Structure formats: structure tokens, C-alpha cells
Amino acid sequence: MGRIKKKGQSGAAKNYITRNQAVRKLQISLPDFRKLCIWRGIFPREPNNRKKANKSSTASTTFYYAKDIQYLLHEPLLQKFRDQKALEKKISKALGRGDVTDAARLERNAARPEKTGRPPYTLDHLVRERYPTFVDALRDLDDALSMLFLFASLPSTPAVPAKMIARCERLCLEFQHYLIVSQSLRKSFLSIKGIYYQATIQGVDILWLVPYKFNQRVVGDIDFRIMGTFVQFYMTLLKFINFKLYSSVGLVYPPKFDQNRDESAAELGAFTLEGNAAKALADASVQPMITEGESEKSTDPKTQAAVNKLIKQMKDTGVDGQQDVATTSTDAEDAAIDKFEPAAPGGDILPQPVHSSGDPGQLFANCTFFLSRETPRQPLEFILKAFGCKRVGWDAVLGDGAYTTNPEDPAITHQIVDRPIVQAAQDSGDNQTAQKLGPNQRMPGRIYVQPQWVWDSINDEELKRPDLYAPGAQLPPHLSPFVQSTHGGYDPTIPLEDQEPEEEALQDSDEELESDEDEEEEEDEKADGNLAVKAIKGAAADGMDVAGSDDDDEEEEGGEGDTTFGGFSEGEDAEADDGEPEEEDPELQYQRELIAEMTGQPVAQKPALNPKAKAKADARKKLLAQAKEEAEDIERAKGMLSKKKRKLHDQMMYTNNKKSAEDQKLREKRRKLEKQKARQAPA
Amino acid sequence: MAPRSQMKRKASTAAAEAEAATFSDDEFGDGVLEGVLSDDSEDEENSDDEAEDVDGQDEEDLDSDEVPSDPDVDEKDADENDGPRYRVEKDANGGERYVYDEIDPVYDSDDSDAQDPENTIGDIPLKFYDQYPHIGYNIDGKKIMRPASGKALDALLDTIEIPKGWTGLTDPATGKPLNLSREELELLRKVQMQEIPEEGYDPYPEYVPWFTQDEETMPISAAPEPKRRFLPSKHEQQRIMKIVRAIREGRIQPYKPPEEREQDEDEEEEMYDLWANEEAQPPHVMHIPAPKVAPPGFDLSYNPPPEYLPNKDEKKKWEETDPEDREKQYLPHGYDALRKVPAYDTFVKESFDRCLDLYLAPRVRRTRLNIDPNSLLPKLPRAEELRPFPTVGAVEYNHGTRVRSVAVDPTGQWVASGGDDGAVKFWELRSGKQMASIRISADEPVNVVRWRPGSAILTAAAGQDVYFIIPPMLDQEVQQANRAALDTGFGYATNGKQATLTSNGARKDPPGTWARPGARLEDQGVLLKITVRADVKVINWHRRGDFFCTVSPTGQRSAVAIHTLSKHLTQIPFRKLPGLAQTAQFHPSRPLLFVALQRTIRVYDLQKQELVKAIQPGARWISSFDIHAASGDHLIVGSYDRRLLWHDLELSARPYKTMRFHPNAIRQVKYSRNFPLFADASDDGTIQLFHGRVHNDLMTDPTLVPLKQLKGHKVVNNLGVMDIDWHPTNPWLVSAGADGTCRLWA
């Protein structure tokens, strides 16, 4: 006989602890508890049974995992918090006594993070505890980067000290430098919220969002203390990640930071990267002053030779950070993974990593860019450099650190422009040959593109056609590179005909037929994409020719028949549909023949039915009957399910239907738009 | 008393006296007391005052200014002091009249208390006199006139220079202004400061060392000075050494002023590789990583494909919905150039919300089923593969009134129906032609009709009677054979024997009386009648055609009866049943009797006379059940609580499948004898057909497939289909409806 179990002694009642209980157990204030939770990554749980977890009470409370709180008991920060609290008490007591010198002495010990931006404790151990391996840390970097980039662009307020902002900015720029050096930026996307970036570091995809460079509007009640708590942790995290990343590519961390250049808005240019022994990477990125003097760097054989020699030297020594990257990339070519083709059928196919032919990191390697005044310099500079471009120049007003600030530099191959075309320039069709002065001044031998060109190029890993992105041109839609196309879902990149289901296609072509009869031929060709309809239509086209040879009256009659038929087949009663038309047809035919006999006229050819419409109606009827049968089958099978499974099935069907309804809506919209466009085009 | 108040009071009283004097003339004619009256005391006072207040002369002057009559009075007083104590006046008759001054009774010469505040009104509040010109009465009963007060001039003068001792208060006893002297003020201050009010009290007198001021020649104690007075303390030494040792060991640090915090905040702390010796740990079971923010879709693009842009209606709808109810927190928007993209309004808000989600939102691990919902559905054989089964109504038999029961005869040619009109009607199955109609009861409805297996004898129950009918449309030969079968029992004469005596001697009714039904019915083919104790609702024949059981749910002890046709014997097998019997049936192959009570079905072995098994379908009220004829191990149960249950007797006492497809009660369930089919009849007017195949292999579960709903019967008074019966050879079904018709479904 086992002991009788007491209620509340085991299971959920022991596993979970409410927030108030936790605070009381730790003997700290609620804000401190909140801080600890944020830093330790402790989050509330939802027990399976709230009643069991909360002593049969159903009051709405927050539950924490009891073990989490137990771990917190041994947290060294807890002692720090208590010390801090004791010190505050001492200060206030001293002030109450009027003992100013004592208070001042104690005050010197107190940390004032709201002033200095630096708390009296470090969070290093927390980072290590939360992320036992480096990859774990990378996995959680999304939120950290988004938040740090946001804080880097916030104005300083009492809640957000300027020191903190400066630190955020530095960390972000250092991280960007790593991405440039390692060329691990993969994708980027211009959204209405900001710019999304995706990088792949050690096989981990990291996605973060950077706001556009505007003053952020603070609406609603936003507690910056909470955000600040997060940012404190994220700063520590990114600091260590940066260190690890820098050391992994053989760079010294922290990189040298030039305060003066930072003040002149050099941003990325304010850092000087150093290799562990030698440094040559900096040559390219932070030596614009020298290169500026040389006008034709690429064509000058002397310089070319010198550069070649230098590179050779560096290869020999093998100490340069950037060169390491280069060598590894060549190594990678040798060690490129092979494609596994199934030798015999029947085996499973394993997904293999996509191996692109060209190195995406060198996409812009041969280009020299110049950014016009109105373009967003920071994201463009970062992206272009991350994709291999060494020479990015911009207008002097955009800040320091440009490769060139001279817009007439002949080395420039691409210029990024984002300004409307002034009317006078419209006659110059080709943007490359146009040579005009004034507002639309163009330099010969240069490609002018809008900023979207850069983003679309990197997402597709190829340089897009620049004429589509010429200044003032109607830009093609900017598509998110993060969307995975699902089977049956709507995909804007695929033509409509390839993705619409059969019944929609039928309905679509039906509408077309009704709307404009005279364009039938063209639409036939158009609708060719759909195979199911094509065969029927092909058959119908013959009949149409015959009908076309007849006089107009009959064609009109045919039109009427079509409309009445359409009305009939719209009825939901499929059983009636099955029987009647077939029965009716011979009867009608017979009637007509009789009349024809009486009047002595030749028999009218296929009077009641437009053959095309008939074929379509048949197809639709078949679809309808099939759908009905399927529905009946499902209903029958559903009857045999248990209640639980039936509910699950219904739920799944609900979500699926909702999704497909959304897709259908999108297709409908697109169809309408395409039709509009087609109508406008001939006009 | 402050001199000022004295003066004032004096002046005012004098004035009052003067007035009183004038009044008194009218009221008191005699001047007897006047001689006695004197103003001595007043004068003395007056002189005293004057002597005291040399420096207060100005005020006096002022006072005299205030009341101009005062000096006159004074003079008059002075005059009076000199002259006789009376005045000579003329009375009304012109004679002399001595008018004496008022007598001053010099009470106050030895009574200082009475003098000062001339309180003549006692404890009465002063305001009671507000309406009168006087305040109280003096000892002579004359009115004491109210002191002159509140005059504008007085007030003005008072404000110009505050007189000495003036407090601005009014003496509540007299209504005169309350003045305080310096001593009085000093006294008040002392009381207020909680000092001792006594004059000249010294709280801190010089300490006089009474006991040690003088050295005595003889000391009190002659003990020598102790040694400890001259030696350093050992205890103190120990304590000091403790501290010294602690300092030496470094346990106590000597105070150091805290070093100046480095002002250079930019100085980087030491960097190190946090993950230098990392080792992967499997994540904790209870740890749930935070879900990532969903990557942006096409509609978030600054220049999305045009179909993603909302039209006017969608935009309006989005704007009208509450921000919390919106499916998306943003509205897609297209810009034709990057420079036109504005800042995102709620960027900070959204990242704040994300922070809140990270640390406030309870996390639950949910397994999302990413499967095709159709994979949940069982693979059912297609209905076409399960043919044949009845699909359409083929023949309709119009009985007229509500049909309670229907039965197809063993040859499959005839259909018998019994209805509310008390008539049993015979129909030809295929044509629907009525062959005969026998009204067996005038007032009772026919509850049930059943054919005897293997022969063309119909048993029909109306009220307490069970009739045996040989249908008249049969051949004579067959009829003769059936008659013989019915009549053999008469030889046994069990009727008389059965009427036994009970224990207490009372004669007990026999459980069933077998008799001829009467000449009229006999002519129509009704040859035999059994009368039992209660209304019979159910008849079920044993497969051999000799036994049948009847169930009368109201019959309590004798609810279930077993009849032997060959012996005309009626037996009641159960002394007591644990509930209301609903229906009973013989097992198709073994000597078992199944009795359905309200909630359970009990299986009895008739030979051993014992309970074999109790089946619990879990229904609240069983209406009917049927046993699978081929296997004998399967059972379907219909219940009034809308459930149809399939039982595997070998498997468990609980149902194998529960089917709830009817919105109303199920009245009847039946297995088909030759086909793997079964059907149920419900009050909703439908019959549901199922395919139910029982496999010979014991390991395979029976296959159940819903096939068809046969709709045709109308619902009358909440009753739909009352009874069903399968055709013995074909996959046909006959149903009886509350709408007065029977139908053949083929």
C-alpha cells in the first residue's frame, strides 16, 4: 500500500509558482524581478491545468516555472541588487541627517546608469549561461540586432542616455564591418517598416530590421526602462559576439575608432580594422584619400602591377585578414560540394544545399558606385560593400568616408539616383547616351539606376537590367525574398494561368466570354496555359468557325442561348443538371426540324447552343458534380470519426479555407488588373 | 489690572451711573438712600490709578477725549465729596426735596473679588442682551447700561494707536474689551512655554557637593586600592589583539577612501572569448525558445505587386476595426520611389510590444499538425462497391392510421402491418395490394406484428392479448397445416394446471390464458388468443418457431413471458428484474435470452437458469436491439437518446462504435439476414442504412460504413418511422411510418 498522495504536493502544483510568490521568495522588488527575468530569459508559462497549478483557484495569474525561480535564487546579480538597495538607503539616511559629505562619499560609490549608461554590474555570465554555445547565441540574435539598430537611431532622452545610444551605434557598425569583411550578408528587403537584412553566419540565418533614418515617433505608453533592460543585455551579447566574429576572421577587436571622423558622419568609415599581424584590408576600405587622386585606377598598368605585386606578397605572408577570406573562398571552390544524382530510381532524394555558380559576395566587385544626395547612404554603403564593392563614393553632404565626393569622377560606373526626371529631359530616351547639362545632367559611360536596383540585384544574385530601374521609370514590384512559396498558395512571380485552380480558370474564361465576344480568338490563345480547358476549347473552335459562317441573326440567337444556359447552370441543384439538358437537346432539335420541314427552310445549325459555351458548361457541370461527390464522400467519412478528430478536421479545414480564400482574392484582383491593363494597351 | 482697563471701566461705569441717575428720577420718587450712597471707593481708586499711572497720562487724556463727559463727572464727583451728601431739588409741588446720592455699600473694601469684573449677569451668555441697551442690573436693580462700543471713532482711534495691554478680545463676562497687563502677559508666556509660572524660580540651581566637599579625617573604608586600578586590562588586551590579528590576516581592511571612479567611460573593459571552451548542452525539456518574428511578406514591400494593395473597402474596413482586432497591424502601401517612403509610425511601439511579448507572454509549446486534413478521414470503401442496398422507395402501402409495426413473411411474399386502428392488414409485397384486413381489437392499437419463422402464422399483439392469425389469402393446404400447428397445444390443457396457489393461499392468475378468440375472429382466420397480465409491446420468436417471448414493459414481475406454442404453455422466467424490461430476444443459435432493460442488456442462459453477461451500451434508455444472425457475437442497440451502438460481445461490455447521426430518438434497429447491412428507424422520419461486415477472422474488427439516409416518411406528432423489417431474401427494407403508410425500399 503506497502512501496516500496529498493534494498540492506534486505535479503542476509544485512545478509552477505565481509571480507574486516568486517575488516574495526572492525578496526583491518587482522591477528588479522583471530585470532578472529579462536578463535570464525567464518567461511565464501556461500550465496545462491552471486550476491544478494554483491550488484550485481560477484567478488569472502569471505562472513561472518553479525551477527557473530556484535558479534565480543563486543569481549573483541578486546580491548586487541588494547592495545597491542598501547603498541607496545609506545615502538617503545620510541626507536625512544632513551629513552632506558622507552622502557625497557614498554617492561616489553608487552607480548611476541613467547618467553614465553603465550599470555597476556586468551581464557576461548571463550571456554564457543563456547561450552555452556560440551558435545558440547567433540563433537568438534577431531581436538583439533589431533592437540595437533601433536604439542606435533614437534621440537621447533621460530614459535613453546618449552614452547608451553611442554604444549601440558602435556595436552595430562593428557588426556591419564584420558582415562586410566576411561577406555573409545574403538578402535585404525594403519594406514600409524599414529595411530587412538577412545574413548567414556559421549556417545560422539572422534576420533583422533597421528603421529608415527618420526621427522615431514615440506613440502610446512605451516604457523605455523595459526596453533599456533588454538593450543592456543585447549590448553585452553583441559585444561578445562581435569579439568572437572578429577573432574568427583574424581581426582585432575592438577596431580602432576615430572620434573625429565619426563626428563628421563617417559612420562605417570611422573604424579602422586591423589584422592580427598585418593589415591590408584597410587599404581598400579606409584609403579613399589616396585612391581619390588616381583617376584611372583600373586602367593604369603601373598601379595594376603594383597592386598585383602587393597581393602576391600578402598571399605569401598569409597574414592579412581580407586575404584570408579570399583564400578560403578559393579553397571553397575546390571543396565545393558535389551534386548527388540518384543512380537508380526508388531511393529517397535528400535536399542539398543550393550551390550558386557565381560568388554572391563579389556581385559588385567590379563596379564603382556614386550615391546621389537624395539616396539613403548608410544602407546603400553597407549593402554595396557587403557585396564586394570596394569603391563607393557619395556626395559630400552625405558625410565623410566616401571613396570619392566628386560626381564627375570618371572611375564611376554606376550612379544611384532617386529623383524625378525634370520635364525637359524626357526626350533623352536612353539614359546611358544622354548627355545633358542642368538638373538631369548625365555623365557618359555611366549607368544610372534607382536604389531598388541594388536590392533586387542582391536578392536575385545577379545584376538586374538597369533600364527597368532607370530614373523616373515605373519600377517593377519589389518582392520579399523571404517568402517561401507553398503549394497552392498565391505567388506573384508566376503567371496567373499557371497557378489558378480549374474552376477559377473556367469562371475566369467564362467572364471573359461574356464580357467581350469579339476577342474570343485572342483569349483562346491567352487561356492556353490551362491544359484542361485547352482541349475543350480547341474542339469548340471548329464549331465556332461553322457558326461564324452563318448569318448574324443566328449568332445573336446563339448568344441568347448562351446566356440562358449560363443562368441555368448556375443553379446549385446538380441532380437536375445531370438529367435535363441531354433530354432537352434532342427534343429541341426535333422541334426545330419539324418547323424547318413545315416552312421548307434548311435546318438551322446548332441553334440553341454556342458550342464553346456548351463545352464550357459541360466542363463546369462535371466539376460541380465531382465536387459534390467529393463533398458527400468526405461527409460520410467524417461521420466515422470520433468527436475529437472531427473537431480537429473542421479546424484544419477552416484554416485551409481561410488561406485559400485569401489567395483566391489575390488572384481575382490580379486578374482584374491584368484585364484592365490589356484593355488599356490596345486603346 | 492694567490701568488702562481701569480707566476705561471707570469712565464707562461713571457714564452709566450718570444715565442711571437720570432714569432713576422718573422711577423712584424717594431719595432716602441717596445720602448713604457715596463714591468714596471710586475716588480712592481713581486717585490710586492716577498715582500709579504717571506714564499712562497720555492714554488717560485720550480716554477723556473719547468720552467727553468724563471730566465733568469727575468734577462733579469732586464737588460732591466736598458738599453735603444730598442735593436739594424741587419736587412736583414746588416743595423742597432732598435727593441723596446713591449709597455705596462699600462691600468691596474687604472683598477684592467682587470688584473687578462686575459680572451682574451670571452665566448667561452676553449675546442674550444683544437686543437691549443694557447688560444686567446692578445691586439697586437698575439697568447697567451697555458700555459704549463699536463707535466708528473708537475703532478708528484704536487702530491708530494700540493701547497698552490691548488684546483685541472682548471679555465674555462683561462685554468690555479685555486688556492684559504686562505681568499677566508674562504669566501667560510662562504657561505657554511650560515654564514654572512662579516668579524667581531657578530650575538649575548651583550644585552643592554636600558629601565630598569636605575631606573626612576618618575614611569610611580602609581597603587598599585594588591592583586592577594600576594594571592595563587583560580583557581589553584580548579584544585589541583580536582586531590586530584580523588586520594582519587581512580580514579587516584599514579604511581606504574609495578610489576615484575613472572618468573616462569610453575605456573599454577587458574583452575575452566568452565561448572559448564551449560545450553544447541539450536544451532543457521545459525550455521553450521564443518564437521568431515572422519574415516580411510581399505586402510589406514599399513597392508591392498591385494586387496586394488594399482597395477602398478594405482600407475603410481596416481603419474602422479596433487596432487590437486587426489581423495585420499595417496597411500595405505602395510608393513609386524609395525617397517617398516615410517613417513607420509605430516602429518603436512594435519593438516595445515585441519586448513585452518576450518577457510577459506565457509560452506554450503547441504542436501544429502540418498534415492534409483529409488524411485524418478513414479510408471508406466507395458506396458503389458496397451494393446492393436499398436506395429508393419502391412501393407504398397505405394503412390509413399510424402504423405501429410491420413484418415481412418468411417467404417474402407478404407484408403485415398493424396500426392504431386495431386492424392487422396484409399486403402483397411487390404490388402493394391489400389482401386482407382483420380488425382484431376495437379500442386497442396493434402494438406489434411478427411472423412465426418457417410458417405463415402471424402473431399480433393488441393490449394484453396476443393473437395468432392465419392469413386468409393463403392456399387451403397451407392454412390447414398451420391450423394443426396451432391446435396441437389444446391437448396439453396446461391452462388449468398453471393456475396454482400462491404461498398465502390466494388463487393466483395464470401467467397466460390460451383460448379461442371468438367466432367472429375465427372466421377471419384468427384462431388463438393468449391473454397475459399486461400490455404486450414486443414479440420475438425463437428461430425454431416453437417458442416466443413477449415483453410488456408495464408488467413488472411478469414483464417477460416465454410461450410454448406446441404445449400452449406460458412461463414467466424471472422472479424479479432489476429494471423496466424494454425488449427481449432469443439468441439465433444458442439457448440464450437477451433482455434489454432501460440501460443494460442482460444475457440469460435458459438451460442453466443463470445470468451470463450484462452488456452496458451506455445509453440512457434503450429502445431496441438486434443480434447479428450469422455470428451471434455482434449486437446493435438503438436508444431513445439518439445513439446507435455496435457491440462486439467477445470484445467488451462497452460499445465498439457509437454512432450519432440522428437528431431524434431511434425506435428500431435491424440486421439484414442475408446481407452485411443494418438499418435504424428514427423519429426524425429517416432510416439510416449502414454497411456492417463481420469478418470470420476474429482479429479483424468489423467494418462499419454509413451508406444512405432513406427519407420519405413524414413526421407526425414528433413520430417518424415506427418499425422496420428486412426482406428475408432480397436487400429490401419495409418500414412503417407514423404518417399512416408503410414503404418498401429497394
Automatic annotation (TrEMBL), chain A:
<keyword id="KW-0698">rRNA processing</keyword>
<keyword id="KW-0690">Ribosome biogenesis</keyword>
<feature type="compositionally biased region" description="Low complexity">
    <location>
        <begin position="538"/>
        <end position="547"/>
    </location>
</feature>
<dbReference type="InterPro" id="IPR001357">
    <property type="entry name" value="BRCT_dom"/>
</dbReference>
<comment type="subunit">
    <text>Component of the NOP7 complex, composed of ERB1, NOP7 and YTM1. Within the NOP7 complex ERB1 appears to interact directly with NOP7 and YTM1. The NOP7 complex also associates with the 66S pre-ribosome.</text>
</comment>
<feature type="compositionally biased region" description="Acidic residues">
    <location>
        <begin position="497"/>
        <end position="526"/>
    </location>
</feature>
<feature type="region of interest" description="Disordered">
    <location>
        <begin position="468"/>
        <end position="683"/>
    </location>
</feature>
<comment type="similarity">
    <text>Belongs to the pescadillo family.</text>
</comment>
<comment type="function">
    <text>Component of the NOP7 complex, which is required for maturation of the 25S and 5.8S ribosomal RNAs and formation of the 60S ribosome.</text>
</comment>
<dbReference type="InterPro" id="IPR036420">
    <property type="entry name" value="BRCT_dom_sf"/>
</dbReference>
<feature type="compositionally biased region" description="Acidic residues">
    <location>
        <begin position="548"/>
        <end position="560"/>
    </location>
</feature>
<dbReference type="Pfam" id="PF06732">
    <property type="entry name" value="Pescadillo_N"/>
</dbReference>
<feature type="domain" description="BRCT">
    <location>
        <begin position="359"/>
        <end position="471"/>
    </location>
</feature>
<keyword id="KW-0539">Nucleus</keyword>
<feature type="compositionally biased region" description="Acidic residues">
    <location>
        <begin position="570"/>
        <end position="587"/>
    </location>
</feature>
<dbReference type="InterPro" id="IPR010613">
    <property type="entry name" value="PES"/>
</dbReference>
<protein>
    <recommendedName>
        <fullName>Pescadillo homolog</fullName>
    </recommendedName>
</protein>
Automatic annotation (TrEMBL), chain B:
<feature type="compositionally biased region" description="Basic and acidic residues">
    <location>
        <begin position="310"/>
        <end position="327"/>
    </location>
</feature>
<keyword id="KW-0698">rRNA processing</keyword>
<keyword id="KW-0677">Repeat</keyword>
<dbReference type="Pfam" id="PF00400">
    <property type="entry name" value="WD40"/>
</dbReference>
<dbReference type="InterPro" id="IPR019775">
    <property type="entry name" value="WD40_repeat_CS"/>
</dbReference>
<dbReference type="InterPro" id="IPR001680">
    <property type="entry name" value="WD40_rpt"/>
</dbReference>
<dbReference type="InterPro" id="IPR036322">
    <property type="entry name" value="WD40_repeat_dom_sf"/>
</dbReference>
<feature type="compositionally biased region" description="Acidic residues">
    <location>
        <begin position="101"/>
        <end position="116"/>
    </location>
</feature>
<feature type="compositionally biased region" description="Basic and acidic residues">
    <location>
        <begin position="82"/>
        <end position="100"/>
    </location>
</feature>
<comment type="function">
    <text>Component of the NOP7 complex, which is required for maturation of the 25S and 5.8S ribosomal RNAs and formation of the 60S ribosome.</text>
</comment>
<keyword id="KW-0690">Ribosome biogenesis</keyword>
<protein>
    <recommendedName>
        <fullName>Ribosome biogenesis protein ERB1</fullName>
    </recommendedName>
</protein>
<dbReference type="InterPro" id="IPR028598">
    <property type="entry name" value="BOP1/Erb1"/>
</dbReference>
<feature type="region of interest" description="Disordered">
    <location>
        <begin position="305"/>
        <end position="327"/>
    </location>
</feature>
<comment type="subunit">
    <text>Component of the NOP7 complex, composed of ERB1, NOP7 and YTM1. Within the NOP7 complex ERB1 appears to interact directly with NOP7 and YTM1. The NOP7 complex also associates with the 66S pre-ribosome.</text>
</comment>
<dbReference type="Pfam" id="PF08145">
    <property type="entry name" value="BOP1NT"/>
</dbReference>
<keyword id="KW-0539">Nucleus</keyword>
<feature type="repeat" description="WD">
    <location>
        <begin position="396"/>
        <end position="437"/>
    </location>
</feature>
<feature type="compositionally biased region" description="Low complexity">
    <location>
        <begin position="12"/>
        <end position="23"/>
    </location>
</feature>
<feature type="domain" description="BOP1 N-terminal">
    <location>
        <begin position="129"/>
        <end position="390"/>
    </location>
</feature>
<feature type="region of interest" description="Disordered">
    <location>
        <begin position="1"/>
        <end position="124"/>
    </location>
</feature>
<dbReference type="InterPro" id="IPR015943">
    <property type="entry name" value="WD40/YVTN_repeat-like_dom_sf"/>
</dbReference>
